Amino acid sequence: MEVRNIVILTGAGVSAESGLATFRGPDGLWEGHRVEDVCTPEAFARDPALVHQFYDARRARLAEVEPNSAHHALARLDAEWPGELLLVTQNVDDLHERAGSARLIHMHGELTSGWCLACNNRFPWAGEMNASSSCPTCTAPGMVRPDIVWFGEMPYAMERIEEALQRCDLFVSIGTSGAVYPAAGFVQTARYRGARTLEMNLEPSQGSYFFHESRIGRAGILVPAWVD
Ligand code: BJW
């Protein structure tokens, strides 16, 4: 089948070689934190200072790292691909856009964005913000939260993603364990629509069975080899 429309899903593994920790596994980001302490709206309501502290540390780390060869290869593909292309990332880092990807959705939110629960406005996260900061728009105190999709919340742009999946001829999943829905189910939607499906990961993902092809290895090697 001739490929015109591509959907690419990325996860934490694509940023691992830049030096950002993945979520699961022995050196995972949640080591030392119980996920339910930091990654749910209930946790934020219970202890906003702890949750802010966790994301402050992630933002500080993000400022120290750079996009790697996988991010750059995907940005080249985006610039050169004449058909439809949508890069859907589960990552909350900004390494895809720093590499130059433009057709990009952050389905789980962004570390560099804040969200005011009082006025619903989203705004760039300023370095000095903390649990008691006021919203830059409505000035309500203590109502800003990281603009991150936590467990039990609806991921962003689901309608746009679903439409792209319904039109794609190729679905590629890179650096994700396939442990978190709805992203873990995209491969099945794409297959149902008749797309070819390819995964690139350090190990077979939980949904490996659904892919036509699995390439096992580092994204920094596999992705440029696939793109170029
Ligand atoms: C490399 C590599 C290298 C390493 N090269 N590879 C029961 C059944 C089904 C669903 C549910 C259920 N109970 C609850 C749910 C729903 C829940 C869910 O999925 N839970 C599961 C735990 C079962 N999902 C939700 O709540 C979502 N919302 C929702 O469902 O809303 C309702 C809805 C209904 C209908 C339609 C749509 C929606 C929200 C999920 C929000 C996820 N948020 C997080 C945290 C963000 C905050 C933060 O960043 O701190 O997002 S969870 C965390 O996991 C993060 C990630 O984006 C996400 C995925 O992780 P990822 O990227 O796959 O990372 P890892 O670490 O798991 O894997 C990395 C992989 O890379 C590994 O395989 C490595 O081997 C590999 N790797 N180095 C290539 N160099």
From TrEMBL:
SUPFAM superfamilies: DHS-like NAD/FAD-binding domain. NAD(+) binds at residues 11-30, 90-93, 175-177, 201-203, 219. It catalyses: N(6)-acetyl-L-lysyl-[protein] + NAD(+) + H2O = 2''-O-acetyl-ADP-D-ribose + nicotinamide + L-lysyl-[protein]; N(6)-succinyl-L-lysyl-[protein] + NAD(+) + H2O = 2''-O-succinyl-ADP-D-ribose + nicotinamide + L-lysyl-[protein]. It is found in: Cytoplasm. Zn(2+) binds at residues 116, 119, 135, 138. It is an enzyme of class 2 (transferase). One of its GO terms (molecular function) is protein-succinyllysine desuccinylase activity. InterPro entries: DHS-like_NAD/FAD-binding_dom, NAD-dep_sirtuin_deacylases, Sirtuin, Sirtuin_cat_small_dom_sf, Sirtuin_class_III, Ssirtuin_cat_dom. Residues 1-228 form the Deacetylase sirtuin-type domain. Pfam families: SIR2. Its main location: cytoplasm. Binds 1 zinc ion per subunit. The active site is at 108 (proton acceptor). Its cofactor is Zn(2+). One of its GO terms (cellular component) is cytoplasm. Keywords: Cytoplasm, Metal-binding, NAD, Transferase, Zinc. Substrate binds at residues 55, 58. CDD domains: SIRT5_Af1_CobB. Its EC number is 2.3.1.286. PANTHER family: NAD-DEPENDENT PROTEIN DEACYLASE (PTHR11085:SF4), NAD-DEPENDENT PROTEIN DEACYLASE SIRTUIN-5, MITOCHONDRIAL-RELATED (PTHR11085). 2 residues (Tyr-55 and Arg-58) present in a large hydrophobic pocket are probably involved in substrate specificity. They are important for desuccinylation activity, but dispensable for deacetylation activity. HAMAP family: Sirtuin_ClassIII (MF_01121). Belongs to the sirtuin family. Class III subfamily. NAD-dependent lysine deacetylase and desuccinylase that specifically removes acetyl and succinyl groups on target proteins. Modulates the activities of several proteins which are inactive in their acylated form. This is NAD-dependent protein deacylase. The lineage of its organism: Bacteria, Pseudomonadati, Pseudomonadota, Alphaproteobacteria, Sphingomonadales.
